[in-house]
Amino acid sequence: MSGIETRAIVDINKEANRFRSSIVLRWDGKVIDAKSILGLSLTLLGSQSYALEIHGPDEVEAKAAMLAVFRKHHLAIETM
C-alpha cells in the first residue's frame, strides 16, 4: 500500500469514531472525513501535512485524541 501504513489509517478512523463531533482533515483544497475508512485509505499519504478541523459537542476531547494518534504514527498535523 502506498501512503501511510494500514495500522495508522485504522487508528485514525477508530479514534475519530469515538466522538460525536465532525472531524475532517484538509489539505490542498481537499477534505477527508476522518470517520470514513475508505476516504482515509484512498487519500492519506505519510508525506503530507494535514489541517485538522473539529466541530461539535466533544471537540476539545476529540482534538486532543486526534493529535495524539497522529503523533503516535509520526504524521504531520496542524489544527484549525
TrEMBL record:
The protein's name in its UniProt record: HPr family phosphocarrier protein
InterPro entries given in the database record: HPr-like (IPR000032), HPr-like_sf (IPR035895)
Limits of the HPr domain: 2-71
Species per Swiss-Prot/TrEMBL record: Paenibacillus antri
